[in-house]
Amino acid sequence: MRRQKFTTILGAFLVFACVARPGLAQTQASTPAPPAGDESQSAAALAQQATNPFSSSWLLQVQQSNNWIDAPSGHERRIQSNLLFQPLMSVSLTKDWGLYIRPVVTTVNSLPHLDRNGKSERTDGFGDTVLGVAAAHRPLFGGRVVIGAGPTFIFPTASERELGQDTWQFGPDAGVTLLGRHFIAYGFVQQWFKVGGDGGDTNQMNGVFNFTYTFANGYTIGTQPSLSVNWEAPQDNRVAFSIGPQIGKLCRCGGLPTLFQVQVEYYAVRPNVSGPTWNIQLQATPTIPALIKKTLF
């Protein structure tokens, strides 16, 4: 319960900061980034950089999600809350190739479920950890298109069995980003297979798709649909797809350019058993210059 209150308070703070902070930030282009304090850059460019999965800057993103879950008959609808820390770090392998590393650490997961007697209860703790790695060539078509691929992993780091899958998982990932003058669009897909652990068989896919339009004053508007597929589940419980509007504002918090975003999603497709129906998602993405500046090879 304390963790659920904590995530609720954090969400309220992010919404307040997104609305109340003035748009003072200056930004950087989507090519190798100058220091975050370079005032010759535009707020729109840094907002675009903060949403780019192939960013040349380092993104220290925190994301909170609150999912309204359908409960079995006789039980009220319940809320699942999780708080993720998902930084993006980039390294120049050569003058033409970059390496992009993104761990997703579930620092708080508050999951409602039914116990063996059919009574509602809630389990709180850490969740499993995802590690995505992708190599990408320098932007194509005049710096507008980036294509990357690599391996992705899931590690069984959950503190409670109900909060994870208790399996080691491995598979491929791939993504593509299109950069326009005032927008960014991308898709990034990951697929995992079980390679070890005591949990059940796993064969699952996750995809995130994004379109964000950036304004000169640092405001953003767009959408970030997500798709998850559990290939091991029965066909009517296999797919979850959510979509909804997203708005954001680039702010300078203590001199650090930070993009705040809020999104309301509806699950147009969801599992028939205990599937989510709505999600309110909050993101805060501080941006810093890459800490490893030298080319490795």
Give the tags.
15-stranded antiparallel β-sheet, mainly beta, disordered N terminus, globular, 297 residues, Porin
Structural notes for this entry:
The chain has 297 residues and is mainly β. It has a single domain, classed as Porin, CATH 2.40.160.40. The chain is 9% helix and 55% strand. The protein contains two helices and 15 strands. It has a 15-stranded antiparallel beta sheet that branches. The longest helix has 19 residues. It is globular.
Helix content: under 10%
Question: Hey, roughly how much beta strand do the residues contain?
Answer: over 45%
The domain count comes to 1
Unreliable residue runs:
1-40
**CATH architecture assignment name:** Beta Barrel
For this structure, what is the CATH homologous superfamily?
Answer: monomeric porin ompg
**Large-scale geometry:** globular
Task: Briefly say what this structure is.
The chain has 297 residues and is mainly beta. Helices cover 9% and strands 55% of the residues.
